[in-house]
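Tip: read the tokens left to right.
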């Protein structure tokens, strides 16, 4: 693979306690082009602006999908990825739905590994920090006709990111969205596509104005069944089961979700994927049957829910703090990701 190194390396951030998320980018990026479904070899080039035509498909019709994963520095200096093939496999599912060509998963992974190795010095080391990895694919024909593009661009950029939780796990406040919907079955809710985010921004904005961190989406048809939150899947721990909404085409199949289901089973918890109505959640809060609720996603890993607001009613989950199972799942997952705990399922992938 062709590698063009930057002649102007950037200053790496010195203060790793203040990295934030997705604001700083490393010195290099990977970029690869497909014409009529056939990818070129791709190359690593200095990080910088892309030149695209103002009529480019992505700018007008939103033909775009992406991924999100992280590289973690272990205490003994190794670099680990977490289930990276799952991300590229999911990207292929997203790409197919938006009429873009699939990647060769092995090749995409080896491209990523080359890029991470080149910019390895950029991986932050402070506890809880990571190198966020953002693969992205978009249609790029220079014409306004509404067709899936013949020319498609795939790229990977890297961003050193701060610890999601500065002072340990913290509970979030969630607004259950009664009106706006994110996706319906048959649409593209199961893909990681920019369009799913565009459609969610207004609800998130309005929830923020009301003092809530995130929106919990209900199903787009009856507005009755729980779907997911922002960029996280949802879990509800009842006295006798841990429930996450079943994948029925409108929510994303999170890799953290998949991992949590496995770890919960390992812990002897009765973890089930099924339809879950918001009424069942509300009743669970009121009867005390609902013990914990949390979101799962690459960014936060586990995000405990302290409070839900449904139709103006404030529902405090458990004691409003961090549940025992939420904490244990967080500790176990991050322990595996940072190489502190044994990786029984072979989820980590060492970059070397
Ligand atoms: C990325 C994402 C998730 C979480 O997926 P992970 O693979 O666990 O990071 C959940 N929902 C949506 C809508 C997402 O975009």
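Filled-in amino acids:
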């Amino acid at each position: 693979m062709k590698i063009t190194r930057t002649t102007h390396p950037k200053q790496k951030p010195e203060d790793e306690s203040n990295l934030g998320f997705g604001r700083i980018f490393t010195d290099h990026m990977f970029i690869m082009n497909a014409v009529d479904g056939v990818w070129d070899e791709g190359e690593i080039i200095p990080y910088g602006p892309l030149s695209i035509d103002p009529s480019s498909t992505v700018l007008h019709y939103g033909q775009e999908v992406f991924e999100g994963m992280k590289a973690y520095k272990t205490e003994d200096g190794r670099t680990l990825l977490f289930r990276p093939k799952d991300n590229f496999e999911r990207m292929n599912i997203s790409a197919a739905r938006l009429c873009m060509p699939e990647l060769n998963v092995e090749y995409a992974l080896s491209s990523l590994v080359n890029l991470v190795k080149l910019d390895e010095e950029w991986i932050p080391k402070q506890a809880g920090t990571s190198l966020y990895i953002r693969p992205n694919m978009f249609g790029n024909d220079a014409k306004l006709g509404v067709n899936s593009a013949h020319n498609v661009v795939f790229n990977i950029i890297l961003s050193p990111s701060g610890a999601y939780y500065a002072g340990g796990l913290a509970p979030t406040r969630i607004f259950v969205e009664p009106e706006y919907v994110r996706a319906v079955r048959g649409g593209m809710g199961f893909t990681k596509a920019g369009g799913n985010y565009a459609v969610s921004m207004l609800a998130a904005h309005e929830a923020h104005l009301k003092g809530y961190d995130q929106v919990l989406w209900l199903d787009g048809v009856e507005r009755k069944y729980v779907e997911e939150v922002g960029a996280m899947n949802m879990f509800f721990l009842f006295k006798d089961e841990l429930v996450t909404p079943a994948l029925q085409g409108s929510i994303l199949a999170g890799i953290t979700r998949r991992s949590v289901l496995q770890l919960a089973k390992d812990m002897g918890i009765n973890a089930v994927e099924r339809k879950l109505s918001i009424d069942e959640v509300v009743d669970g809060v009121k009867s005390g049957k609902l013990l914990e609720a949390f979101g799962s996603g690459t960014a936060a890993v586990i995000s405990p829910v302290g409070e839900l607001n449904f139709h103006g009613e404030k529902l405090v989950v458990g004691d409003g703090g961090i549940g025992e199972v939420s904490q244990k799942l967080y500790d176990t997952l991050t322990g595996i990701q940072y190489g502190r705990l044994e990786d029984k399922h072979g989820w980590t992938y060492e970059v070397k």
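The chain has two domains: 2-161, 172-337. Residues 84-97 form the longest helix (14 residues).
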